[in-house]
Amino acid sequence: MKILIAPDSYKDALAASDAAAAIAQGIRRAAPEASCVLCPLGDGGEGTLDALLAATGAERRLTRVQDALGRPIEAAWGWLEESRTAFVELAQASGLEALRRDERDALSASTFGTGELIRAALDAGARRLLLTLGGSATNDAGAGMLQALGARLLNSRGEALPPGGAALAELDRLELDDLDPRLAGLEVQAAVDVDNPLLGERGASAVFGPQKGADATQVARLDAALANFAERVAAILGEEHRDLPGAGAAGGMGFAARAFLGADLRPGIELVMEQVDFAALLEGSDLVITGEGQLDGQSLAGKTPVGVARRARAAEIPCVVLAGRLGPQWQAAHDEGVTAAFALADGPMDLDSALTRCDEFLADRAESLIRLIRLIRAWRLSP
User: Fold this and answer.
1) Which of 46, 78, 108, 300 is 20 to 30 A from 268 via CA?
2) Domain range annotation of the chain
3) What InterPro entries does this protein map onto (predicted)?
4) CA dihedral of 14, 19, 22, 26, whole degrees rounded to 10
5) What top-level class would CATH report for the domain 48-269?
6) pLDDT, tens digit (0-9, with 9 covering 90-100), for 56-104
7) How far apart are CA 251 and CA 164, in angstroms?
8) What is the SS3 string spanning 226-290?
9) 302: closest CA among 256, 354, 358, 254?
10) E strand or H helix that includes residue 146
11) CA neighbours within 13 Å on the CB side: how many for 103?
12) Angle at the Cα of 270 (from 104 to 262), degrees rounded to 5?
């Protein structure tokens, strides 16, 4: 039996590679003869860079940049010399996981560090850029990235705006004369894990602002600020991108990537599966196991388990999801190719306890799953 193991990371608990190893361990306890193919994945959020590096053999580089709050950090990115391709994961520089809960500040968090990573890629001679958008601590619609790349964002007094999305309410003039000219020769693909627009009730601020520390009043303030930014950008570029699916990804970074980098916004899981040649790995598989921290109705917008399930369904291979939690409307995933889905915890427990035991739970659920499959097969073969 060939089993393709293709999970995403389990937020705050396990990297995708560690999750895949734990699942394989459980499978081998029940079926030592099983052929386990490990394919850790990502859909644009934290951990996607690691999946890309593992799949492509790209060089891992480190660059000193600013985190979302302006503090110096070492951020990783990937480099393929032969094709002059750079892999930049926004979460490395501007990610939420690097901040304590009491540090989350959606009003002033900035994507400046992500712009610094893009500049490092340009310095290396990049001709192609795969920019993964997800796991951000920011809600500045990519304004910080633009500042790092040479753009000037000014208020009515000609003063440079401070970092963060809230400051965009004061944006009066956007000057692009000093924007890095090398961007014109850069082919950009942006991996997004959501299809939200920039503004409104499904926009970056309303849907994702609260998890970045914004209360209801601050969400409204941020949405209005990003609307002002979008209006100024449309006036300069003569194009509207605010309603583009994925424009709201990573606190509006999808909007800036499309408007200023000319990025092709695509579901991150599709881009990553292309890079790892998922179709070839799928051939001959009897079962696919995937998963991440939570499976719910929003997973259909571009999350890893549903992206994997859709590919498995097309190949007529059953697909099982092992999720940390089954959230609201998770059953909709059945219509997308998920054969069955299981939550990991084996009883009531607090979140911290569940996170520390994630590898144990994954192995146990995988073992139980394979034992059940073997039982069903035995029944079918019995007279």
Assistant:
1) 108
2) 2-41+276-381, 48-269
3) Glyc_kinase_flavodox-like_fold (IPR018193), Glycerate_kinase (IPR004381), Glycerate_kinase_RE-like (IPR018197), Glycerate_kinase_sf (IPR036129)
4) 130
5) alpha beta
6) 889 999 999 999 999 999 999 999 999 999 999 999 999 998 899 899 9
7) 10
8) HHHHHHHHHHHHCCCCCCCCCCCHHHHHHHHHHHHHCCEEEEHHHHHHHHCCHHHHHCCCCEEEE
9) 254
10) helix 143-148
11) 15
12) 70
What's this model's pTM, rounded to 2 decimal places?
0.85
Between the two ends of the chain, the Cα-to-Cα distance in Å is 22
For residues 351-375, one letter each, b for 16 or more C-beta atoms within 10 angstroms of the residue's C-beta and e for the rest, the string is eeebbebbbebbbbbbbebbeebee
**Which amino acid does the sequence have at 70?**
G
Tokens in use for 194? 């959501």
Q: Report helix, strand or coil for 210.
A: helix
152 pairs with which residues across the strands?
175
Question: 5 by DSSP, 3-state: which?
Answer: strand
Give the position of tokens 């881009």.
Answer: 271
Q: Which residue has the tokens 């998963």?
A: 291
Distances (CA, A) of 234 to 7, 229, 240, 242, 260: 39, 9, 5, 9, 11
Helix axes 358-381, 16-30, angle to 10 degrees: 40
pLDDT at 303 over 80: yes
Rounded Cα–Cα distance for residues 158 and 175 (Å)? 11
pLDDT tens digits for 193-249?
888 999 999 999 999 999 999 999 999 999 999 999 999 999 999 999 999 999 999
What gap in Å lies between CA 244 and CA 238, rounded to an integer? 15
Q: What integer is the mean pLDDT of 104-111?
A: 97
> How large is the average pLDDT for residues 24-29?
96
